[in-house]
Amino acid sequence: MTFFARFRLATFVLALLAIIVAAPVLAQKSGSDGAPNPTASVTSQRELLQQVPRITGRIDIPDTRASVLIQPAGRTWEYFHQVLLRWGGAIVIVGTVALLVIAYLILGRLPISAGRSGQKVVRFETFERFAHWLTAASFVILGLTGLNITFGKAVVLPLVGPDLFSDISQLAKYVHNFTSFAFVLGLVLILVIFLRDNLLEKVDIDWLKQGGGFIKNRHAPAGRFNLGEKMVFWLSIAAGIAVSASGFLLLFPFYGTNILGMQLAQVVHAVVAVLFIALILAHIYIGTVGMEGAFEAMGTGEVDLNWAKEHHDQWLAKKLAAEDRRGEPTATPAE
Ligand code: HEM
Predict the structure, then answer these.
(1) pLDDT digit string, tens, across residues 253-293
(2) What is the pTM of this model?
(3) Does the C-beta of 187 come closer than 6 Å to ligand 1?
(4) Number of separate domains in the chain
(5) Is 189 within a domain?
(6) For 36, which DSSP code?
(7) pLDDT in tens, 55-75
(8) Domain annotation covers residue 100
(9) Ligand 1 center to residue 244 CA distance, Å?
């Protein structure tokens, strides 16, 4: 064999070896369209998931959506759910609690300035309180069971272990789904019952001008609800509609939505839910520890006469005048 022939043979053998060694790598790196070949024996799952923007496969069930394993918006959504929502939600909720603690430390409990009169007036009828507590109780249940979806893996799982966490989460998921119906009923009742008293009036401007009663020793005029309460009402109705609509889209997947619609519904649901929880935390604060005499309104339905004079003077005046016209007893002595 001549030197030239030997050189040609060596080159051929080297090229053959190179092809044998490189073939699986090439197969992994580029399919016919430049994507990794998912069936290549050395394809790593991680690489597959990370490198390609979209992974689809062949399926033999009628639902073609199931053939998409990964798509670009899915990664954005995953980042939102695993990172942005967790951090954003934690900051908003913990931040609100911190602000309320600071408010309490600075303002303390707002007292009834004139002290208790010893006389009671009816503020909310039984059915009005039923509508409020139906909405409030279902809200708390939805909030806790929903937050388990957002934070459970980070907060509850390390405390209780995987088995119990899995049982808790499964139960919480069912409770969340079914409590939604009670919440919607409560929301509709609240809207119907309290709509009229939450329309804007001229007195709301005066209430605002006078610092909403937060300036010491000055009580701002108000009707049945003051401007602050009206804002809580309208924000709650708007947030309630948004979480209900997006929640039902999640509850009945792909009825009128595609995968993008589902992702959007989840983002709206989670963001509005977190803001809604912050709003209601402030509402709970002012209705309990933040203000003397306020809780009784939704507790027993009756408030102290002086509390009513200080916080809802115009409502009280109209109420007493109407009862007077009907010849009914007005304020009753407290038991
Ligand atoms: C009609 C009312 C509601 C319906 C139908 C509903 C339904 C749902 C559904 C189906 C999910 C997804 C569960 C899953 O991923 O498997 C969810 C998640 C969630 N819900 Fe609701 N929900 C409603 C109201 C509320 C309310 C009032 C709150 C807050 C107080 C809330 C807070 C949450 C939270 C925080 C999540 C978890 C979001 C996430 O991390 O992905 N929901 N809801």
Answers:
(1) 999 898 899 999 999 999 999 999 999 999 999 999 999 99
(2) 0.82
(3) no
(4) 1
(5) no
(6) -
(7) 888 899 988 888 888 888 888
(8) yes
(9) 8
